[in-house]
Design brief:
single chain; 12 strands; 5-stranded mixed beta sheet; 335 residues; alpha+beta
């Protein structure tokens, strides 16, 4: 896999790209934290779901789909977003599932799932071609599913455990998602711990845990910020991040100034911004410990772009404002 590292000269341009092309969030924050609300939306328990079969040819992946189901999530009669669930057999004949983003008929710029569809297919194509055959990818379970189905590469996690289904979105898909075994449940706990701990300590632990027996990669994307409550449920350290919706205008420079001003008011100026419709969802790191966690250091927060954590190399980054990134764990002395 070819490195696509960011030089210091690209930091300002990347900051602007994060605002202009960061992509829209498929799920609103309230869905992944049911006690919270946003945009006047009512409690997450009022989320309704309907589903219908899709043609198996509606999706393309490394494995042939045995069946595909489309799930439409709505509230108060208004459709919010859609997901696809593909059932398939892996190379060993084991039944697997993958939650996928449909490619909407809408233009990419206005389609929350269409943009993610293209981001994931572009990443999977590069990973399938360039990642070593024996590569192992560390990610959260839903990203592991997509990685495996689209590229055929081996993820460390790809099944949820019961704690995941406290979320109404995942609970709606519960019957289609094979459950994690006890061993896999322990991996969920371990991954949640690594993502939410100090980045240097996490990378050192990962290097020791897996050794040099095979190439180890970390795959992260901005949607992991929507899993914070889930990480905490699996035993990860709660991450104290602030978030706010800031209205978008036709003046990008003015928008950036608003975002920076809020980031300094809520913390030390470190932020990550994503465009969603007519506003930006902006995240900041008011807590120093959260700022130095593995999750924040690997995501395109503006301070994280300045210097990578020790022990990892950036080998792939999507062109959509750095939405999805792949890092390689460097070999440690003695391995």
């Amino acid at each position: 896999m070819m490195p696509e590292k960011l030089s210091k000269g690209l930091l300002l341009m990347t900051s602007i790209m994060l605002l202009a092309t960061g992509g829209m969030m498929v799920y609103r924050q309230w869905i992944f934290a049911p006690s919270a609300t946003a945009d006047g939306v009512k409690d997450a328990e009022q989320l309704s779901t309907r589903h219908a079969p899709e043609p198996q040819t509606a999706i393309q992946g490394h494995f042939p789909a045995q069946s595909v189901e489309r799930y439409i999530f709505s509230q108060d009669g208004k459709d919010l977003f859609e997901l696809l669930v593909a059932l398939y057999q892996d190379k060993d004949g084991v039944r697997q599932s993958a939650v996928l983003f449909p490619k909407d008929a809408q233009a990419i710029a206005s389609s929350p799932t269409g943009s993610r569809h293209d981001i994931w297919h572009a990443a999977a194509e590069v990973i399938a071609r360039k990642a070593p055959k024996d590569a192992l990818f560390l990610s959260w379970w839903d990203d592991g599913q997509r990685l495996h189905y689209l590229s055929g590469k081996d993820p460390w996690l790809r099944k949820p455990a019961m704690k995941t289904f406290a979320n109404p979105v995942w609970n709606a898909l519960r019957d289609t998602l094979p459950l994690a075994s006890d061993e896999e449940n322990a991996r969920l706990t371990q991954m949640a711990r690594w993502l939410s701990m100090d980045s240097d300590k996490a990378i050192a632990e990962i290097a020791v845990y897996f050794g040099a027996s095979r190439p180890i990669y970390l795959l992260v994307d901005n949607d992991l910020l929507l899993h914070l409550a889930e990480f905490s449920a699996y035993g990860g350290t709660p991450l104290l991040l602030d978030s706010k919706n800031i209205p978008a205008s036709n003046d990008l420079h003015g928008d950036i100034a608003q975002v920076k001003r809020w980031a300094h008011e809520s913390g030390d100026g470190n932020y990550l911004a994503q465009k969603e419709g007519n506003y930006y969802r902006v995240w900041s790191t008011p807590d120093t410990k959260a700022k130095n966690t593995l999750l924040v250091r690997l995501l395109p927060f503006v301070d994280s772009l300045k210097k990578l954590p020790e022990g990892v190399s950036l080998v792939y980054q999507s062109h959509w404002g750095g939405f999805l990134s792949v890092y390689k764990i460097d070999k440690q002395p003695g391995h």
